[in-house]
Design brief:
mainly alpha; 3 helices
């Protein structure tokens, strides 16, 4: 059977583990996801990226 993926914060964290948790969920290296997140935040004037990060920080469960 297929393994069910769960979106969780990661222990491989720089701030709170949100972006690294997203990287683990999609199967990408955390470094690449962090670069993508920063680029998207800069392109969108950083405000939406900051709001999304804060929302995910409070809604994502901690890593086991």
């Amino acid at each position: 059977m297929s393994e069910q993926r769960v979106l969780r914060k990661s222990h491989d964290c720089m701030l709170a583990g949100v972006v690294a948790g997203l990287a683990e969920y999609v199967g990408w290296p955390a470094k690449n996801m962090r670069i993508l997140y920063v680029l998207l935040s800069i392109i969108s004037a950083a405000f939406p990226g900051t709001i999304v990060y804060i929302i995910l920080y409070f809604t994502m469960p901690d890593a086991e």
